[in-house]
Amino acid sequence: MAGGFFNSQSVNDYMRDVLGQIDAEIETMPKEHLDGDLPSYFAEKYAAKVPVLGNDITMEEPDCDLHASRATIRLRIPYEGNSLFFQMQPMSSPLIAATWTIEGTSLVIPLTAHKSQPAVFQRDKDTLIGQINDGLNNIRREIAAHFNQLPARVTSKVQWRKSQTAAHHQFVTDLASVIPIHRRNDGAENIIVPVVRKPVPILPATKDSDPLIEMAAYDDILSMINRMVSVFERSPKVFAEMEEEDLRTILLVGLNGLYEGGATGETFNSSGRTDILIRQNDRNVFIAECLIWDGEKKLLQKLDEQLFQYATWRDSKLAILVFNRKKGFTDIVRKMKAAIDGHAQRVRTLAYAHETGARYIFHRADDVQRHVTLTALAFDVPSSGG
Fold it and tell me: How far apart are CA 23 and CA 315, in angstroms?
């Protein structure tokens, strides 16, 4: 990075951009966050790190030019902060002809003077440092003046947001009294958290088996996951940057809003990085692993090193949820199914009515007589790359 001193964007323009970002964030912020200490939050988030110059100033030894009467040295001035502010223009700034470059955490500035006058280098260096500090201090004062007004601005914007939201809700209420609101019936309405959550039927352990989740409950859970993922597809900007763990957490919260747990109130838990599970008497009776598609090798690694390792000795219901962010989704579904079909522990493939899914019986690696049910589901989710 290189440039001249205090000759680019003005402090006022910079702060106008910052305040615009704060306004936009308040307009889209979840309403439960509006009552927090937002002035402190924004002051910390958008704090201007105006550089502070260090005292350990050094120079690079100039080239030895026997015929030149003048020499150029490169001052190296350490600093901490954002180098953007070396270019920013306060309302009052010194006129500095020198240019600069950034090398690591040092501000590098060339100084030229006559070889017979080394004291001139010292004088010019001191003058230059003083001018730079003057300009940076002016920037600090102007930014501080803007931030002093931030609490009142944020409070006003929050009140505006609340009043506009309340007005919209009142408008919808008034309108609904004369015109019925159309309710969606595409399946997404079924994932709204119900007033009364329902328990997941789990058969108790017997002498010869572990606790067992009923097949109807297993299918119901997978159906709910399908419906929740359909929301990912309808809101691409929200989910585009999310990783496996983020997507898992959203599913986990949604499932616990639909199904009722025991003493803790939570049926679905997390253990490790991406799994969703139901435990009964210290046994895992349902486990789902999330995976962003990155080839067959990663899929099989997820199955062998995580999903099958967490499964109980018998009767576990398993699911692998594959999120695709690449092109050619149809081909990826084919590759997913082929990779699982070819797994050494697959016993047979079951009939399963799902366009991008499949269901299997697998035996355990340590006991071929003990089986688990595995359902693989692939979803085409959005990504920032399009």
Answer: 54
Amino acid letter for position 113 = A
Q: How far is CA 3 from CA 97, 99, 100, 101, 102, in A?
A: 11, 6, 6, 7, 9
210 plus 340 within the same structural domain: yes
Residues 206 and 351 in one domain: yes
Q: Can you tell me the distance from the alpha carbon of 324 to that of 103, in angstroms, rounded to the nearest whole number?
A: 41
pLDDT by position in tens, the chain (length 386):
677 888 888 899 999 898 988 988 888 877 777 888 888 888 888 888 899 999 888 887 777 677 777 778 888 899 998 888 988 888 887 888 888 888 888 888 888 877 777 777 788 888 988 999 999 999 999 999 999 999 999 999 999 988 988 888 887 777 777 776 555 555 544 544 444 455 555 555 555 555 567 777 788 888 888 888 877 766 666 777 777 777 777 787 777 766 655 433 444 454 555 567 776 666 667 788 888 899 999 999 988 888 887 776 555 788 999 988 888 889 999 999 999 999 999 999 998 888 899 999 998 888 888 888 899 999 888 665 55
Check if the beta carbon of residue 116 is closer than 8 Å to that of residue 146: no
Within 8 A by CB and 6+ apart from 375, the residues are 218, 222, 317, 318, 319, 320, 352, 357, 358, 359, 360
Same-domain pairing of 139 and 192: no
| 163 located within any domain | no
Instruction: Phi first, then psi: give them for residue 31, nearest 5 degrees.
Output: -65, -25
Dihedrals φ, ψ of 70, to 5°? -120, 155
Please state, in angstroms and rounded to a whole number, the distance separating the CA atoms of residues 94 and 244: 52
**What is the model's pTM?**
0.48
Q: Is residue 165 part of a domain?
A: no
CA distance 222 to 288: 9
CA-CA distance, 241 to 292, in Å (whole number)? Answer: 12
Task: Give the Cα separation of 7 and 173 in Å (integer).
Answer: 54
Name the residue range of residue 354's domain.
188-380
Domain total of the chain? 2
Decide which of 122, 151, 180 is a domain's last residue: 151
The first and second tokens of residue 213, run together, are: 């989740």
